[in-house]
Specification:
about 325 residues; alpha+beta; Jelly Rolls; Cystine Knot Cytokines, subunit B; five-stranded mixed β-sheet; four-stranded antiparallel β-sheet; developmental protein; CUB_dom; signal; Cystine-knot_cytokine
Length: about 325
């Protein structure tokens, strides 16, 4: 008999089962309007210490201007009563979009700090609830700030990404740069250094025509030209040629866009009757390779394909005057 009474006493002092204890809080909800004109914060009562039990607090943040948005960032110190079955049932903080009643999120526990939240308009609502059991610390603190409206400038060709420009406009823009580094920064601001490395990485394609035949190694010293070359005579001289025009390429642009080449030019002395019939023409022509940067739109893709390539240009080594229709020689 004594043993049975002992068992009965143990059962009497055991706590009630958890589901039976849990009740939702039905206290009246008094919304507090917070006018937002600068940065600030709201927090659970007594933060960062244990918040009180049986509490319902609601804040509606309202910005003075209608065309601004409100940003919320949770403090790193965050802790409310843990969830049950993955659901924040008892102590929680939630954020609501007042314009349509959408709940942006509800949080509790200690595992992670909620992420940044942003209102759709100039208002946002924060609701904090604690029941009568197991309050925790530190609670929560939310820092709020205003995001001013952004008015983008109308899009113009000069503001478009370089890769989106038509080739004629891009050709004009590219011509203004004096170094490959400056050009690459303009074309691909986010990856220009990688493009530089790719350009100067030796590949077998580059070794074929350019290095094996030794075309690039020849350097012409303009000071060693023949002494008899005079300013106005029919002689080879430096001309600046446009690569797109010279190569008849409309599908690509090049940097540099113009190169110096030797071309015949100057006056001819054989003119007797009609000077238009007398021309300074090349009598010896060689072709030389020039390394340039080539830019093309990628087929079916966004962006530009960039490569170092060798272009073959004619250079006039020797010139002479030819007078058509001059029977006197």
């Amino acid at each position: 008999m004594d043993e049975r009474n002992s068992v009965i006493r143990i059962m009497v002092i055991m706590p009630c089962p958890l589901p039976w204890r849990r009740k939702r809080v039905h206290n009246p909800q008094h919304e507090k309007i917070v006018s937002v004109s600068a940065n600030g914060s709201i927090h659970s009562p007594k933060f960062p210490h244990t918040y009180p039990r049986n509490t319902v607090s609601i804040w509606r943040l309202v910005a003075a201007e209608e065309n601004v948005r409100i940003q919320l960032i949770f403090d790193e110190k965050f802790g409310l009563e843990d969830a049950e079955d993955g659901i924040c049932k008892y102590d929680f903080v939630e954020i609501e979009e007042p314009s349509d009643g959408t709940i942006l999120g509800r949080w509790c526990g200690f595992s992670s700090v909620p992420g940044k939240q942003l209102s759709k308009g100039n208002q946002i609502r924060i609701r904090f609830v604690s029941d009568e059991y197991f309050p925790a610390e530190p609670g929560f603190c939310i820092h709020y700030s205003l995001l001013m409206p952004y008015h983008p400038e109308p899009a113009t060709p000069s503001l478009l990404p370089a890769s989106a420009l038509p080739l004629d406009l891009l050709n004009n823009a590219v011509a203004g740069f004096s170094t490959v580094e400056e050009l690459m920064r303009y074309l691909e601001p986010d990856r220009w250094q990688l493009d530089i490395e790719d350009l100067y990485r030796t590949t077998w394609q580059l070794l074929g025509k350019a290095y094996i035949h030794g075309r690039k190694s020849r350097v012409v010293d303009l000071n060693l030209l023949k002494e008899e070359v005079r300013l106005y005579s029919c002689t080879p001289r430096n001309f600046s040629v446009s690569l797109r025009e010279e190569l008849k390429r409309t599908d690509a642009i090049f940097w540099p866009g113009c190169l110096l080449v030797k071309r015949c030019g100057g006056n001819c002395a054989c003119c007797i009757h009609n000077c238009n019939e007398c021309q300074c023409i090349p009598t010896k022509v060689t072709k030389k390779y020039h390394e340039v940067l080539q830019l093309k739109h990628r087929s079916g893709m966004k962006g530009l394909h960039k490569s170092l390539t060798d272009v073959l240009l004619e250079h006039h080594e020797e010139c002479d005057c030819v007078c058509k229709g001059n029977t006197d020689g």
